[in-house]
Amino acid sequence: MKKYLVITFFVLSPFLLNAQTPAETEIILFPSDLTVHPFAANQLEPKLGFDFKTIGNELWLNIGNSMDLIRIKNDGQYFSFGADLFTWTLLKREDNFHFPVDAVDYMFGVNMAYITRIHDYSFGGRVRISHISAHFVDGHYDGSKKQWKDGLDPRVYSREFIELLGFYSFYNLRIFVGGTYLFHVDPSTIGRGMLQTGFEYYMKDALAYNLSPFLAADGILKIKDNSRNFTFNLGVKFGEIDGRGLRLYYQYYNGYDINGEYYNFKREYSSIGFNLDL
């Protein structure tokens, strides 16, 4: 972690030093919003909500937050440094309103973001340096048989990575492209490089004021084996499209399991979700 802080310091220092002199430069500590709003269909984003599979008894509880710690504003340009901490938890529905926890993944790290806004369009990017670890929980253990369910014992799954996503927005369409490099991963057989692209489009205030239908997609190509993960969202958002609000959506997913303990299991499913956007 120390080396990440050193890298962050050298990246930030030119902006901080230059920010002390020009009168038009503004430094904001702990702004109330994010410089780069989370990408709607990307699985690795801070979320607050649930996803319910349309078939079966599984659902996800998503708890997370991303915060800009400092933002530098200068002549339509914004640069920020922030932190990410969130989880996604696989639950099973049982009788009597019981939801045993099967698996949970943790992600935490730092991010840097940049955006330039000009009239009706903007462009920029986001870099994240993060850690993910995955774990089976007591809901995956069969107490009567004294063994882990489905013959799957807990296994080490951990990855540290750097992710870069660049985007271009005009009117209510945002297109993004980028990639991820895993500089450390367990198990070591997992490929280290991934390419990613996607989009999101909002029909701003089409139904009523601050009520906007949207659709979004995200695709990931794993370079080592050419495997693909694909996510599609269709729904409606209550609130500003690039700010806080509530999203209700249908999701289709086809790819490898998002929980690390099942990293080599291929999944295809639909789900209904709601999320409190940051």
Q: Strand content of the residues, in percent?
A: over 45%
Principal-axis shape equals globular
State the CATH architecture: Beta Barrel
Portion of residues within helices: under 10%
Number of separate domains: 1
CATH homology superfamily name? Phospholipase A1
Average pLDDT number: 90
Query: Could you give the count of β-strands?
Result: 15
Instruction: Detail the poorly predicted runs.
Output: 8-21
Number of helical stretches of at least 4 residues? 1
CATH fold descriptor = Outer membrane phospholipase (ompla), Chain C
Strand order of the largest sheet: 2-3-4-5-6-9-10-11-12-13-14-15
Distance between the termini: 26 Å
Largest sheet: 12 strands, antiparallel, barrel
Radius of gyration: 20 Å
| Helix and strand pattern | HEEEEEEEEEEEEEEE
Text of the CATH class: Mainly Beta
Task: List strands and helices in order, with pairings.
Blueprint: H1 2-18, E1 26-29, E2 48-53, E3 58-74, E4 77-92, E5 101-118, E6 121-136, E7 141-142, E8 147-148, E9 158-170, E10 173-186, E11 193-202, E12 211-222, E13 228-239, E14 245-256, E15 266-277
